[in-house]
Amino acid sequence: MKLNYQNMLNTPKTGIQITENEMKMQFAKVQNIIEALNHGEGDNQDKGVPMLGWQTYARDITPAEIQKIQDAARNLADKCDVVFIIGIGGSYLGPKAVIEAVYGKNYNDVLKTKLYFIGCDTDPDFYAHCLKIGEDKNCGVVVISKSGTTTEPALAFRFIKRLIEQRQGKNAKDFIIAVTDAKKGALRQLADGEGYATFVIPDNIGGRFSVVTPVGLAPIAIAGIDIAEYLSGYKKALPLIDNPDAEKNPAALYALLRFLAWQKGAAAEYQVTNSAFFESNLAWTMQLEPESEGHYGHGLHVVPAVFPRDLHSIGQLIQQGPRDLIEIATKILTPRADLPVPLYADDTDELNYIPQNKLTLNDINKMTIDGPLAAHYADGVPNMTIELEKITPQNLGEYHYLLMKATAIQGYLLGHNPFVQPGVQFWKDKLFKLAGKPGY
Ligand SMILES: O=P(O)(O)OC[C@H]1O[C@](O)(CO)[C@@H](O)[C@@H]1O
Fold first, then answer.
1. Ligand 1 centroid from CA 87, angstroms
2. In 3-state terms, what secondary structure has residue 178?
3. CA–CA dist 418, 411 (Å, integer)
4. Which residues line ligand 1 (CB under 6 A)?
5. Is the predicted pLDDT of residue 75 greater than 80, yes or no?
6. Cβ neighbours of residue 250 under 8 Å, at least 6 residues apart?
7. Catalytic residue among 289, 291, 293, 398
8. 306, 247, 300: which is closest to 274 by C-alpha?
9. Whose CB among 67, 95, 208, 275 lies 3.0–4.6 Å from 90's, allowing a Cys bridge?
10. Which PROSITE patterns match (predicted)?
11. 77 to each of 198, 302, 427, how far by Cα in Å?
């Protein structure tokens, strides 16, 4: 994993301008922030609990706990044709990002036990579709909710629970895994009452930082992905990402450059990639960063984009629209399989220059990041690139820790606690009121 940030500096023309000197002037401050995070200091509490457990979870989880998750996952996958993963926000984006990065968006084409994410919307058509899929099949569910009272996943669980009960009768509980709080909350109460297998979301880890916990681990294990490998990548990143020397720490540089760009008027950040498999990781980032930094008028809008696809829709705006944006690209260097481009004698489409220049499809795919980023920079869009050698569970673990630490650093640079989300509660309350929930 490598961060290349030269294109964030000295942007030509009219774009956001950041100099190396401005960056260096902040290094001491960033160093203090990293030390504070490493030592559990600073404004980091949610309802009285310091929310920094994601920094140590991968290091502290025991082999026995990993095995327990793996065994429960295998057991459920083996006896089910379909497993529904229920969760919303941080309770589904992380596992979806890992599963899609490993198998692609059409993961069900390669998985024996089909996985469906439900509970992050309330569309009756989608529910009907899922219930139809589950009809006459052995279905299981992993229901993920720290609070247990989030409307969308709680609703979904009612429907899926009923579906499972109709087929399995009193054995239904053996097809249900709940991932929730250790002691509190409606789902914990239900799970204990009904005897579901459970895994704990630690008190000191919030939803958007929870991919490293059973929130992420249980579903990705059901998909057959090696969770020990994911955790080993996350752990491997700790010394690099916890390093207080800002200049040597990619998370520090990432956060600092985003912060400086925001200070200088950036309103939006395009999170881009050249990998169709990686797209859901951008969706994960789209919660992680805005939910952490969108306080007191702070923060950047995060716009996900897959290149080259989305260049053919939003490319004009990026190139010549308002100069209030930056781009952060995640470039995958080596695909699982590279393909030579077929040569045709007639060359009607004028593509023979590609194989004649000894370029493969992957060479072109890398250029669909490099070329457009250079063009955007020339027109005033600062950008930086995270290079991932390959998509592997290990590299995904590293990448997630980089982004989470950067998000925490960014919150402290902005001067607020990045681990709370009072604004989310505000609209949730409005919805409760509309629906006539008692007490609202
Ligand atoms: O796990 P819970 O309690 O259902 O919360 C789900 C999600 O809702 C949010 O509060 C808002 O999206 C997220 O922070 C969280 O990840």
1. 8
2. strand
3. 5
4. 88-91, 145-147, 150, 153, 207-208, 291, 421, 424
5. yes
6. 1, 2, 3, 240, 241, 386, 402, 406
7. 291
8. 306
9. 208
10. P_GLUCOSE_ISOMERASE_1, P_GLUCOSE_ISOMERASE_3
11. 16, 35, 36
Do 61 and 177 touch, CB atoms closer than 8 A?
Answer: no
CA distance 134 to 126: 12
| Residue 312 falls in the annotated catalytic set | yes
Query: Which tens digit of pLDDT belongs to each residue from 333-392?
Result: 999 999 999 999 999 999 999 999 999 999 999 999 999 999 999 999 999 999 999 999
**Which of 39, 170, 312, 358 is labelled catalytic?**
312
Mean per-residue pLDDT over the chain, rounded: 97
- Distance between CA atoms of 4 and 217, rounded to whole angstroms? 30
Asked whether the beta carbons of 256 and 370 are under 8 A apart, the reply is no
Asked if 428 is an active-site residue, the reply is yes
Per-residue confidence (pLDDT) for residue 14, from 0 to 100: 81
Spans of all domains in the chain: 2-42+232-414, 54-225
Q: Is residue 416 pLDDT above 80, yes or no?
A: yes
> What is the structure's pLDDT at 13?
77
- Which residues are 262's β-sheet partners? none
39 given a catalytic annotation: no
Asked whether residue 106 carries a pLDDT value surpassing 80, the answer given is: yes
CATH class of segment(s) 2-42+232-414: alpha beta
Nearest Cα to 225, choosing from 364, 96, 64?
96
pLDDT in tens, 282-309: 999 999 999 999 999 999 999 999 999 9
Q: Minimal CA–CA distance to 233: which of 50, 410, 388?
A: 388
Upper half-sphere CA count for residue 421 (Cβ side, 13 Å): 17
pTM of the model: 0.97
- CA–CA gap between residue 265 and residue 262 (Å, rounded): 5
Please name every residue paired with 268 in a beta bridge, in sequence order, or none if there are none: 301, 325
CATH of domain 54-225: 3.40.50.10490
Determine the Cα–Cα distance for residues 261 and 302; give it in Å rounded to an integer: 13
Residue carrying structure tokens 């899926």: 160
